[in-house]
Amino acid sequence: MKRNRILIFAAAAIMLAGLMTSCKTSGMAMTSKGQLFKINIYAPSTLAEGADGNIDVVLSNRGVNNVSNILTDVELPPQLIVLDQTNDNGVNVVHDPGSNAYHFTVGSLNPAEDSHMRFHVRTSFGTATQTGEISVTAWQNDLPGDKLFRKTVIGLQR
Length: 158
Description:
Number of domains: 1
CATH architecture: Sandwich
Distance between the termini: 65 Å
Largest sheet: 5 strands, antiparallel
């Protein structure tokens, strides 16, 4: 009887570790306090040369406790020219002119709350058939490995 409990506990621990690892690579991770923290990037799959479009980055808390002190870096490839950048109240942004990197701080995300960052961009593919990677990395002490990341690209519409 005692041996069965140990096996059940070991199997549950292995499944939980696998779930946390698989979620981390898909833009979702479980914090050490049980919150589900998620990054989504909403970008067009293709855009024509010189076309405008929006890239939305959404940070989400799907747990039962606040997720606090979130630092987020968004790196855009050189094929995207940022025309405008907006974000929700409570989100602070730092951007060095001439740089493709944006640094955001979010003080706290309450349960079931989202935080939005929007980039209005114009494409300049040149000879490329797709943009470089749009990369979003969020750092928070309770995340496994202290960070969570998500990447995507935009293809050239022909």
